Structure formats: structure tokens, C-alpha cells
Request: fold
Amino acid sequence: MKTVIDSYIREEMFPHIWCPGCGNGIVLGAIIRAIDDLKWDKDKIVAVSGIGCSSRITGYVDFCTMNTIHGRALPFATGIKMANPDLKVIVVMGDGDCSAIGGNHFIHAARRNIDLTAIIINNMIYGMTGGQYSPLTPTGKFGSTAPYGNIDQSFDLVELATAAGASYVARGTVYNPRQSASLIKKALDKKGFSVVEIISDCPVSYGKMNKMKSPVDMLKWIKDIAVSKKVWEGLSPDEKKEKYAVGEFLNKDRPDYTARYKEIIKKAQEMGGNK
Amino acid sequence: MNKLKGNIKLLQGNEACVEGAILAGVRFFAGYPITPSSEIAEGMARRLPRLGGKFVQMEDEIASMAAVIGASVVGLKSLTATSGPGMCLKQENLGFAITNEIPCVVVNAQRGGPSTGLPTKPSQGDMMQARWGTHGDHPIIALAPSTVNEILTLTIKAFNFSEKYRIPVILLLDEVIAHMREKVEIPAPEDVEIVNRKKPTIPPEEYLPFKPDEDGIPPMANFGEGYRYHITGLIHNYKGLPTSNSQEIDAFIRRLHNKIQKNIKDILIYEEYLLEDADTALIAYGSVVRAAERTVKLARKEGLKVGLLKLLTIWPFCFEEVNRLAQQVDLIIVPEMNLGQIVLEVERAAQGKCRVVPYGRVDGELINPIEILGKVQEEKNNEDCN
Reply:
């Protein structure tokens, strides 16, 4: 029997490349369910990604899709959206892709408040290349390039996106795919730059190096570290270091970049001239 | 020089590039400020919105190149402009555009290098970067105007080639022609030949986005027009999906090259000046052409049979034409503002049939006609001594 998911995927691309227990498929399912709820025209959806395991999502969905280069999905998407603001543009990135090599593009897309939806699958590690630490690896955790423990302080993407000027910011987890789908749906439907971070699992890299060898161990850990905003607010600073607040953090209305550029076109055409 | 007619304006080189791009139908520009190309971005910021086009100043050169590719995939003719340091940053995305056959034009107003180099002085140090800057085995088209008027005409050509052959085209200026002012003939829009990308004529369910027609070029559907397909920097099959099939990989890489090589006659633009009876040829491009033309005149006054081959298309290289020339003349001198880049191609093409001598200058100053003449005389004397 065909499911909702089946009508949105490129069957010929399967089996997918992801390892057993990987959270990417859960996020893919959540994205598709969110889009199906919105009843968007497939021909008008463009999905853009960078490089990494999570970025392979664009190959599996039956939209106009673009698997670009490492870290640069957002500027590609910016060109697409500027060129045709009627298109719905979704950008899927991993934690390294978005916050290390693509970190500058991330804050500038937020600053412009361009009408894109950025979905960041945060498994806290570079999975495809074998488990090196990323800017979202928690301090003290291990990676193949942090064999004695990670001394870096990690970014909080929710705070980063909010400070940089996004319109919508939320965080979900693969432990709770229904909540993730509903956050993604709201983000997709939001005019302006919207960001949803989904905390995900990489049992073969992150799990293996951090004493969570099975996908079940990892999901239990994610369940444990994810707390609601309300619970989060009651935690001490030390307790917060081990937890992630989950839910919607920002939802405000302000004109997106393409709307403001439309005003520029109007102004320029009224002023005229040919110099 | 050809006599100019029609609507004549005094324009700066970078302004002529803006005029040419607009005549060619540009509707998108993304860029980042850098000397000596910034006037192109400034012109585009003023002009594009009046035409309903879009301008965006991105956060860096990498993002500019990415945005240009994104806009082109949606169907807008797209341009970016930069100089050496920015050109370095654009290379990875340039490769993405080549492998996905996405039309776009990239201007490199060359300054002295390496590194920050000489931001306000001319150079021709990026000729080989234009050819091989991005990694992997790939083709490229690069054009090099030598006058402000040629900047306008070659900008139009650059867009036409990029649309026709589905390839990024690099327009190689240098600081001097980018900033100097000259008379430019602005053609009426109806007199400009415009080439637009070939679109699919079959229904979406039959469309294979990377299946070439007989000319080696696949029709290109713009995103959002009902043809849903995948674009990836991975080597891909006709469907645009990643492949590790060695036959498909081989056919793909060869086709990328062949679509340019098979059409080389259409792509090569060059001019010959007093070569009919010449025993010595200068081969020059970009602003050095201006000095070389003068050298030919001075040499002729002294009774020396010197002519000039002026290259407007740099890549692909005019191998056969140079080979023929090498069979006619005894000596080819290649003056260029580097220590010998295009002269290497000339040597390869000459295949030992005549002497090929470089003449390089890298002090940030233009090469002048007298010094080229001096080089001609010196080499002629060497011949006599031998």
C-alpha cells in the first residue's frame, strides 16, 4: 500500500545511503508530512542542500532539488528565491555544514530575513567523514578528532538565529517526530527566514565514541537531554549545560527580503533614468 | 581600429560591461565589493531594479557565485564580477556550474598578484587560473577584450556562449581597460544577436535533464516550470542522479569537453593585423594588444615585416590557427603581463615550427610599444648572429 511518504520520494534513489538507526530518515518523514499538510504544489517547491549525510535528503524527494557544495546551500537558495519569490525554498543542512563552513551564510540569511526555511539536522558530529567534532558537539564529548574530549564551546543555533534576525526559530528532536513535523510545518508557512534545528542521532560515529552504541541508546539520550521551554527556564546554569530546550522560541512578523526588494524595484522604476 | 557608428558614449570599461550585460538580457547580479571591478556591481545595483531584475550584495565571493548559479537555474541570465582574490574564492562554485552546465558570466578584472597583490594595477596573471582554477578535468570559455568597446561586445558574446553551450564564461579584463574611458558604440537592442538557452520540448515525465541532444548539449528546464529534477555536484547520469558507473562517468566527462571542442570554430574569436607577409608575429590579448598594434606600425616603418594575432577568445585556445602561423613565420613573440602563461600554449601549438619567445612584465606597469619593438629587434639580431 502506498503511503503519503511514497508519493513524495524518488523511489529509484532507494535504498538510501544512511546507516541503520540514523535520524535523517525521521527528519525526511517529518518534512514530507509537513509539506503534505500544507498541500503545496510539488512543481513550486525547491529543496536545496549542502554536503554531508543529511544533505542527501534532496536526492530522495520529488521536487526541484539541488545538492550543492559544502556549506553554501543558503546562498544558492538566496539566488533561487530572489530570482523567483513565488517558489517555496527549503534548505536542509547538517550541523557542520550549517554552523562551521556555512556559519557566515547562516547569520547573513537570517540578517536579510529572506523567505527560506532552514532545517538543520544536528547529530553533533561530522558523520559522513567519520565522526570529527563539529561546532555543535557539546564540550567534553568525544569525536575522532577530539580523542581526549572536545574543548570547544558549542553554538546554540536557536540563540544564534534569533540574534541574527530570523523570523521563526524552533528546535525539535528525532525522538519526537510529530512535534518536529509540526514545528517544520509552521516554519515552512512562515514568511521570512525560519529555522528549525532537529537534534538527531548518529549511532555509528557520535554514539560509538560517546558510549551510546545502539540507536536505542542514542534516542533514550536525546529524550533525556531535550526538555520543554518551561522546564528549561527552571534549570540552574549548570543543569542547562547538559540539556536542550525544545519547542518554538521565536515567531514574529517582519517583511522578508524579497518583499523589500519588490519595493526597491518600484522605487527604481518610478525614478527612471538610464544612467 | 574599426570605425564606431551609431549611439556613441564615453564609457569606463566596467560601465561598458554593465551596458553589454543589459543588452544581453542580464536580470540577476550577485557580488561582493572588490577593486578594480566594483563599478560593475554599482552599475548593476542602479540598473537592474529598473528592468525588474534583481541585485544582491552577498556576504562574500563564494556566496555571490552560489547565488548567481541559483538564479540561473530559475531562468535568469546572471552575472558576477570580481578580481583575483575573489576569483580564488569562486572556484569551487565555478566547478559546480561547469558540471551542472549552468549558464552564467563571471568577470575577473585582473589585478597584480599573488594574494592581495596590486589592487589598483593591471596584470594578466590569472590566464591559467581561468583555465584550470577549479579542480577536476573540465572545459571553460574565457574571453579577453582589449578595448572598452570590445568589453561591451564580448560581454554580450559571453552571455550568448554561456546560454548556447551551458557553461560559465569568464570575461578577463585587467585594471587598465576596466577603468579607462573610451568611445563605445551602444547598439540598438534590435541589432543585438541574443542567444537563449535551449528548453525541453518534451513533457516533464519524459524529460532527462542531462541527456544531450545531437549537439552534445542537453535542453535546460528552469526550476519552477513543471520539470522536477535533481542537480548535484556529484557526477551524474542523464537523470541528474549520482552515478558510479564507469561508462556513464567517462561519457559524461568527455561530453563536457566535447561540447566545447566540437564547436570551437564558433567560439574562437581572433583578429589578424598585417600578418599576410609577416615573418615575425606578435600574439597578444587584453590591454597589451593596444601596445602590440602600435609596435607593428613602428616596426613596419623600419621595414620589419611584423604582424599581430590578437586573441579575443583565450579558452579554448586557438591551437590550429597558431600552428598555421608558426609554419608561416620565423619568430613569434608573446608579450603579456605575466612571466609566461599564454606563451606556453603558443609553444605547444607551434610544435617547434618557429621560434617562440616570451616577453613578460610584472611590475604593475603596462607593456609599452617601444619595449616590444626593442624585443623584436633584439630577437631579429639574434637570428642574424646565428
Summary: Chain B has two domains: 7-191, 271-385.
